[in-house]
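Chain A, query sequence.
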Amino acid sequence: QVQVVESGGGLVQAGGSLRLSCTASGPPFGSYIMGWFRQAPGKEREGVSCFSESVSGNTTYYADSVKGRFTISTDNAKNTLYLQMNSLKPADTGMYYCAAGLTLTATSCVARGNVYWGQGTQVTVSS
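Chain A, predicted structure.
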């Protein structure tokens, strides 16, 4: 079982930046796909970015809406996943969840099977 804890959300003006952090404990960090989902009020939870580590190379996924603005990264020594969010827009507002045990397909990152979720951290972007 993986436990994940997010931090780093907050209130920022449009055009600003935030960095989310997610610390994981349990199985060896990097042995499972991790990522970030978000949920805006009245909308379904959507995959924002995912990261998969392997000996042959790392794989990242970004939703079209965040490509070029968000960057996912890891610090294995700290068992931590990051999401650097730049050029934030009001449309980025929502609860951001870190998750472990995700699945990467050819075109997306999905939560399927046993997925471990954090409690969420709120990101609010004002116009």
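Residues 9 and 123 are 5 Å apart (CA to CA). The radius of gyration is 14 Å.
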